[in-house]
Amino acid sequence: MLLKNIIDIIESVAPLSSQAEWDNSGLQVGRGDAEIACALLCTDVTEAVMDEAIRKGCQLVLTHHPLLFNPLSTIQGLTFQERVVEKAIRHGICIYSSHTPMDRWLHGISGRMAEKLGISEYDFLTEDQYGVVGNLPEPLSPEALLAEVKKQFHTTAIRYTKPAKSVITRVAFGGGACSEFIEEAITKGADAFITADWKHHQFLQADGRIMVLDIGHFESEQFVKELYRELLKDAPVRLLDAEADKSPVAAYI
User: Fold this and answer.
1) Residue ranges in the chain modelled with pLDDT below 50
2) Could you give the CA distance from residue 57 to residue 60 in angstroms, rounded to a whole number?
């Protein structure tokens, strides 16, 4: 299958035109007329992921985070980005990223987070189409919510604030770093807000009005592989989840 046809399927729900102005989604290495038989799915294109793609004979790496946020001035193998590009070109492997386009698709990253907690009906959290908010199928205590989030998102640690209510019925979600949308979450009536990368002053901003949970950046976006797999389920392409796709952050408990 031609890469451009794979891209058309992805961009039918997450168009490149929807990406944030600071983003660099899209085809980063390779050509649209490349023939693809096997694709490796990941959250981040690390050197270990690229080595896995080479080892498994993949012609494409589909990633959430772009490998190249900033232009490369040289390719000398001094950084992992340079080494990944070098290996990709040498082995004829294409790299495509859907970052903020997948974030701004209602049933994309944040929608999948909601679905992991059994929420099937949800709406965008912000006017700019980031995050989602919806009602839990059954109310949970804050302790039960923490336990369920830990289970569903495979987290080793969750940073959180004191809950505002003894029962959680409505939850907001934001894939990646969406803590700046805390006021929108409160306005939309959320009892809890699950996202990542909370800073100290943002935890203070909760101010007893909402329970916030920081589950980790990778943990909030790891299900992009499921989204790619579902979008391409009818494509004549072998789809593999990258075994090397792991969070770069460990927690000492």
Assistant:
1) none
2) 9
Give the integer Cα–Cα distance in Å for 174 and 155. Answer: 16
**CA 225 to each of CA 178, 197, 233: distance values in angstroms, whole numbers, following the listed order:** 20, 21, 12
Asked whether 216 and 249 are in contact (CB, 8 A), the reply is yes
Distance CA 229, CA 250 (A): 27
Report pLDDT for 73: 87
DSSP 20: -
How much is the pLDDT for 111? 98
* 3-102: CATH, from 3.30.70.1520, 3.40.50.1820, 3.40.1390.30, 2.40.30.10: 3.40.1390.30
Among 241, 242, 237, smallest CA distance to 2 is for 237
What is the spatial distance between Cα 72 and Cα 82, in angstroms, rounded to a whole number?
Answer: 8
User: Which residues of the chain form CATH 3.40.1390.30?
Assistant: 3-102, 106-220
Which class does domain 106-220 fall in? alpha beta
* Predicted local distance difference test score (pLDDT) of residue 71: 84
- pLDDT score, position 229: 98
User: How high is the pLDDT of residue 2?
Assistant: 98
Specify the pLDDT at position 251: 86
- The pairing of strands 168-173 and 211-214 is unpaired
pLDDT of residue 90: 97
How do the residues of the chain divide into helix, strand and coil, expressed in percent and rounded to 5?
35, 20, 45
**The pLDDT of residue 122:** 98
Q: Give the SS3 label for residue 101.
A: helix
Q: For the beta carbon of residue 73, count every other beta carbon within 10 angstroms.
A: 7
What letter does residue 44 receive in the DSSP assignment?
Answer: S
